[in-house]
């Protein structure tokens, strides 16, 4: 994250920065850049499916946390740097290449490819941030100090990343890398405080809220698209039977409903709030940098559950299927609900999402104790999402109030 830029400096110096006075569009290069992360999310879901253990799940969580930070910090950088300028374009392409390498070795990051994974990740975070120090220094002088603080934080965590890759493996490497991520996730809350360099302030993080909101919404599309790819790829390799078709429709319906729950009102309200907030940096940090993580993690969990359902639609729902379906959807509703709460003037968690959380908890408990046919279990999960979507639709569009008033008049 970086500070906003002022009106000081020559036009030549400012040429690597976007004009923040008007609408900041999402560039085609940013959309191209995102394609790498479709592959990265697919790698994470495959890692979970192949290991299917607590250790594999923990390793996938570390990998996702790194992938998310690489993406979101690059999005912050692209909020200021102009992707149409050649140096910025080269920087984004280099980050894209390093991200692709990181995604390729991701399934073996806790085995023999740990050093490649760590070096790729460190190159992304440190290299991009130092580039932004240069951009900000040439354009604003003193405002580059904020980017320098961030670079030093990343350099500190880089030591832990590389040490973990060189000195440990498996669970031991997990704890090293968890410590590295703790440093990086604590940075924005600590305002990147450093001795002699001071700390940043939220008022310094003047950004284009609409651009960041749109970029995060596009990442949600990426995550949902990864689920569609998994669903379509699995179904394409199966016989076209009624059972397989039913499982396919259940998986597809779940993806559609997750899209609906986020994009019907949440994305627009979030964009409006950050665009008009007095401290857009605070909203960007809380609502987008952090609260979108459980949303994407929930989508990944749902994609894993869909692949398990499609693989064995004629079996009873396994405990793994129950855990990933209910756990993934609960995580998704919790994240979206918190995001909508932060985007609302009423600051209340949506009642529809709270009901969905309760129903998924009940469904998980029942299916854990009483084996249910997989298709029935999957249908019940979709029914919960449908209830949430319909409930929110009518509550926000006045449908319940109008129907209740008409019923009262008839009575």
UniProtKB/TrEMBL annotation:
Cross-referenced InterPro entries: Low_temperature_requirement_A
Bilayer-spanning residue ranges: 28-48, 60-78, 90-110, 116-135, 147-168, 174-196, 216-236, 242-263, 287-305, 317-337, 349-369, 375-394
Pfam families recorded: LtrA
Species, as recorded: Croceibacterium selenioxidans
Protein name: Low temperature requirement protein A
PANTHER family recorded: BLL5714 PROTEIN
Alphabetical UniProt keywords: Membrane, Transmembrane, Transmembrane helix
Domain of life: Bacteria
């Amino acid at each position: 994250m970086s500070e906003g830029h002022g009106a000081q400096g020559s036009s030549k110096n400012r040429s690597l920065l976007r004009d923040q006075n008007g609408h900041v569009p999402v560039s085609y290069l940013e959309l191209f850049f995102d394609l790498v992360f479709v592959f990265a999310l697919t790698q994470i879901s495959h890692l979970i499916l192949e290991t299917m253990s607590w250790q594999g799940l923990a390793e996938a969580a570390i990998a996702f946390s790194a992938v998310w930070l690489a993406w979101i910090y690059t999005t912050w950088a692209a909020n200021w740097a102009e992707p149409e300028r050649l140096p910025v374009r080269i920087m984004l392409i280099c980050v894209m290449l390093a991200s692709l390498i990181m995604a390729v070795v991701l399934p073996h990051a806790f085995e023999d490819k740990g050093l490649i994974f760590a070096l790729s990740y460190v190159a992304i975070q440190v290299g991009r941030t130092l580039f932004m120090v240069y951009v900000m220094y040439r354009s604003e002088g003193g405002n580059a100090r904020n980017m320098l603080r961030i670079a030093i934080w990343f350099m500190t965590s880089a030591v832990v990343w590389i040490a973990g890759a060189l000195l440990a493996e498996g669970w031991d490497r997990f704890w090293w890398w968890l410590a590295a991520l703790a440093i990086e996730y604590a940075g924005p809350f600590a305002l990147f405080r450093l001795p002699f360099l001071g700390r940043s302030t939220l008022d310094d993080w003047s950004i284009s809220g609409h651009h960041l909101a749109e970029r995060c919404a596009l990442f949600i599309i990426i995550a949902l698209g990864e689920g569609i790819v998994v669903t379509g790829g699995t179904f394409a390799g199966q016989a076209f039977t009624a059972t397989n078709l039913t499982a396919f429709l259940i998986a597809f319906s779940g993806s559609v409903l997750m899209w609906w729950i986020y994009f019907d009102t949440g994305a627009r309200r979030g964009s409006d709030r950050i665009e008009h907030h007095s401290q857009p940096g605070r909203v960007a940090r809380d609502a987008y940098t952090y609260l979108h993580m459980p949303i994407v993690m929930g989508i990944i969990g749902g994609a894993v559950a869909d692949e398990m359902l499609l693989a064995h639609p004629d079996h009873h729902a396994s405990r793994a299927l129950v855990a990933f379906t209910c756990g993934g959807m609960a995580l998704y509703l919790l994240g979206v609900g918190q995001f909508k709460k932060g985007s609302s003037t009423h600051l209340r968690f949506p009642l529809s999402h709270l009901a969905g959380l309760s129903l998924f908890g009940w469904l998980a408990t029942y299916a854990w104790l009483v084996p249910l046919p997989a298709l029935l279990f999957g249908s019940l999960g979709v029914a919960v999402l449908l209830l949430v979507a319909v409930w929110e639709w009518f509550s926000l569009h006045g449908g319940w109030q109008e129907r209740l008033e008409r019923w009262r008049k008839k009575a």
